[in-house]
Recover the amino acids of this structure.
């Protein structure tokens, strides 16, 4: 049989042993209640193989009569990848009791609440953002760009709507690069978006649940890429496992984190002294670091592989017809005007901007993008005022801070370097400063406090 989801996907369900009609009738009530929670999550309706809705006032006796074709726990397990739900494992021939079904529902609701808590410290909801920008005469449009008509000066959306412009700013960032390595796209987990973060979290929690149930002997995490993201994630994950060992949840040595880097060392943007501090910190947390090692393939063998090994330019820029360099980044001048195009600007990770003196590419850092945004905004205003644009002269060195689990971070100011708790406080202040640069003070303070609370809970 199959249960179809409104997105068009079909989830195959293996028929379970038919329960006695009385217990099935009781379970049907819980089934319908839980199915309603699923529908809220996916924004669609669950139906049986005939297209009959499972919720919406359906007689529980009808569900009971159809019970042999459904097994709640197996259904949710198969939907798990899409819903990121935490699902209790049930034997393949066991129909969930009312208590089990309600327990699953409560765990799902708790997971949703926990997700809201995690989101509150790292992002601003779209509806909240709309209210913020309305005061600045900004229209926020959540849509996919299908193309750009340079002659008509319009941006075409996937919905069919066309947005005319006087000045256009391209700030689309980058996307994850798999370098054509077999298995990366299929089995590795990227670490680029908030959704990616939740997916990784649920995979690790699923491994822990299997470990607690005796279905797994070990928990293995491999982090591919020894840059700032990979090092921070490896340190935080190892710190999390060390806490579980202290609490007796995981036996010492049963959870391991490995960091794999193809280059000669981790955090190559830092000085040798700070890199040594970082390696020592990773070793103290039990992280196995393998440098000079390249992944040749990722297999589906139960190991969680988190991919932080690199990014590539946003592919749609080529389809839009933007002039690109040999690596695929947008070409801009010293004022961030796209070369050869009128009233078109680009900034952030999607462009190549070289320092005039060192000829080094400006690093892909949030602080750099914020500075660039200020230059572009000023130049758009100057264009309206018929003034010459301003050029940007970036600093040679940037303040770089990498948290490494607990109240520990390494910070490089160029003229001064900090490790441990002082570096951690610098990072927290940098976060607050960034939020204040893009949000009203009250909103910035709230997201900073919420994020600090969540971060501290991992320690």
């Amino acid at each position: 049989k199959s249960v179809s989801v409104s997105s068009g996907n079909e989830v195959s369900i293996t028929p379970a042993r038919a329960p006695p009609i009385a217990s099935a009738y009781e379970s049907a009530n819980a089934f319908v209640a839980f199915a309603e929670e699923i529908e809220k999550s996916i924004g669609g309706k669950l139906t049986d193989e005939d297209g009959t809705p499972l919720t919406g006032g359906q007689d529980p006796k009808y569900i009971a009569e159809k019970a042999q074709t459904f097994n709640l726990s197996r259904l949710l397990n198969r939907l798990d990848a899409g819903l990121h739900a935490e699902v209790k494992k049930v034997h393949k021939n066991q129909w969930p009791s009312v208590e089990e079904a309600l327990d699953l529902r409560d765990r799902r609701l708790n997971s949703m609440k926990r997700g809201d808590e995690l989101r509150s410290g790292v992002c601003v909801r779209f509806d909240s953002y709309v209210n913020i920008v309305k005061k600045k005469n900004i229209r926020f449009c959540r849509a996919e760009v299908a193309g750009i008509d340079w002659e008509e000066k319009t941006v075409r959306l996937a919905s069919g709507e066309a947005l005319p412009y006087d000045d256009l700013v391209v700030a689309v960032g980058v996307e994850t690069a798999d370098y054509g390595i077999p298995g990366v796209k299929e089995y590795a987990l990227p670490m680029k978006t908030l959704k990616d973060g939740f997916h990784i979290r649920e995979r690790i929690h699923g491994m822990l649940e299997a470990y607690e149930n005796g279905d797994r002997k070990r928990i293995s995490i491999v982090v591919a890429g020894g840059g700032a993201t990979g090092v921070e994630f490896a340190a935080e994950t190892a710190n999390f496992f060390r806490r579980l060992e202290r609490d007796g949840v995981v036996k010492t040595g049963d959870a391991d984190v490995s960091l794999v880097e193809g280059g000669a060392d981790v955090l190559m943007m830092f000085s040798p002294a700070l890199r040594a501090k970082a390696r020592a910190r990773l070793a103290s947390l039990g992280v196995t670091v393998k440098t000079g090692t390249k992944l040749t393939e990722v297999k589906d063998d139960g190991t969680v592989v988190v991919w932080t090994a690199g990014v590539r330019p946003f592919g749609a820029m080529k389809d839009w017809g933007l002039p690109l360099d040999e690596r695929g980044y947008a070409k801009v001048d010293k004022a961030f005007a796209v070369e050869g195009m009128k009233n078109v600007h680009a900034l952030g990770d999607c462009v190549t901007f070289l320092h005039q003196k060192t000829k080094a590419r400006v690093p892909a850092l949030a602080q750099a993008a914020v500075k660039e945004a200020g230059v572009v905004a000023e130049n758009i205003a100057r264009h309206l005022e018929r003034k010459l644009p301003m050029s940007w002269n970036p600093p040679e060195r940037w303040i770089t801070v990498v948290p490494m689990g607990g109240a520990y971070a390494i910070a490089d100011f160029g003229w001064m370097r900090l490790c441990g708790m002082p570096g951690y406080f610098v990072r927290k202040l940098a976060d607050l400063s960034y939020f204040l640069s893009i949000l009203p003070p009250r909103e910035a303070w709230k997201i900073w406090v919420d994020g600090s609370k969540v971060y501290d809970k991992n320690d």
